[in-house]
Amino acid sequence: MTELYIDADACPVRDEAYKVALRIGVHVHIVSNGARGLRVPEHPLLHQVIVTEGADVADDWIADRITARDVCITQDIPLAARCLEKGAAALNSKGRPWTHDNIGGALAGRAVAEHLRSTGQTTGGPAAMTQADRSRFLSTLDTLLLAAQRGPAPRMRIPPGGF
C-alpha cells in the first residue's frame, strides 16, 4: 500500500498534500521535530509523528520506513536522495520531482552554498511560492501517488542484439 511521508517542519504545502492524499485514499505521515504549531486535521489516514529534537531525526524516521511504493515531500536534498536510493518518489514543495538525474547536481549545489555560508558569504534563499508552484505541486503529487499505487514500473528486458 502506498503511503505519503511529509517532512513537515518547513513544508508550505501540507494542506494541499492532505487534500490530494485523502482524495486518493493513502495514509499520510506528517513528521516533525516538535509540534511547533502544526495543526493536523483529525482523519484516520493522517498520522502526526513528532520525533525527538536533533539533527536529521525526522529525516532518519522517514528514510527508515519509506519503501519503493511511497512518496516523500521534502525540501531536504539529502533526505530526497535517501528516498530515491530506496526506490521511492520524492517531490519538493514547488512540485518539482527529485530524480536520479537531478539529485546529484542539487547535492553539489547544496555543498557549495554551505561552503560559501561557512566563509561568511550571504547566499539567497528560495524564491517565494507562487500560485503556479502550488498548481504544479498538486498536479505532480497526484501523478506520483497514482503511479506509486500501480507499483514500480516494470523493467524492460532488452533481448541480446537489441530490437
TrEMBL record:
It comes from the Bacteria. NCBIfam families: PRK00124.1. This is UPF0178 protein KHU32_01490. PANTHER family: UPF0178 PROTEIN YAII (PTHR35146). Belongs to the UPF0178 family. HAMAP family: UPF0178.
